[in-house]
Amino acid sequence: MLKIHSIETMGALDGPGLRIIFFLQGCPLRCLYCHNPDTWQLDKGTLIDDEAIVGKALRYKPYFKNNGGVTFSGGEPLLQAKELVDILKTLKANGLHTAIDTSGYFNASEDIIVELLQYTDLVILDIKHENAGMYKMITGHSIEKYLHFKEILIKKAQSKVWLKHVVVPGLTDNQQHIKDLEKEVRTFPLERVEKFELLPYHTLGKSKYEALGIDYSLSDTPEMSIEDINSLKKLIKLDCLI
Fold it and tell me: 34, 42, 76, 210: which has the highest count of C-beta atoms within 10 A?
């Protein structure tokens, strides 16, 4: 059984093709720019059993065609890694493409993560920052979990990889950081990295903080313009950059 925050059907942004996306409840990170603070608490959400999750996914199989499928996002889906393994295994047995959208933070054993990745066609990995100090400042946590997951993904899995990074004005938009970020991307096996994306910071989640009575630390930070994103992209020499 999984704690589910919400479900999106016929999504087109969280993996290849048309997809059903299960947003899992719970995330230990407190990213300064998080736009889903309502997913943080693991004790919230709705508990849904494996059969119901698989059944709902299979109902949409005719729409997936050759490259669509199922994505587990969050929150942080790896917080429920042990529960997720059997579901991914069943989905694969039914011929569905599987993806997880993660920051790489997990509490399960390494063996469970290795098994989970055996049934995961695509890992969409959010690189919060390549520098340990900045990672801690942005997320409130050590970079070690991300580095451990990255090591497992590289050495013990065959999943394809999409990498992404949020660019925030005054925080992650300086040229040296972007150059260092490219170096970080190059530490992954590039033959498996299908996509690398710079995502512009936006303020769409600000109202959620207000509704939940949580201070929004970037309230004075402007949104990142597409023009500035495109300018930073010119610093990166990677074929997988989109």
Answer: 76
Contact of 181 with 165, CB cutoff 8 Å: yes
Q: What is the mean pLDDT of the chain?
A: 96
68: Cβ contacts below 8 Å, ≥ 6 apart: 15, 16, 17, 18, 19, 97
With 0.90 as the threshold, say if the pTM is over it.
Answer: yes
Share of the chain above pLDDT 90, in %: 94
Number of domains composing the chain:
1
Predicted confidence at residue 65, as pLDDT, reads 84
In-domain check, residue 238:
no
Q: Name 204's Cβ contacts closer than 8 Å, sequence gap at least 6.
A: 35
**Which residue range forms the structural domain that includes residue 118?**
2-233
Assign residue 55 the CATH number of its domain. Answer: 3.20.20.70
pLDDT of 165 above 90: yes
In a domain, 162, yes or no: yes
HEC string of 38-87 equals: HHCCCCCCEEECHHHHHHHHHHCHHHHCCCCEEEEECCCHHHHHHHHHHH
Quote the DSSP letter at residue 88. H
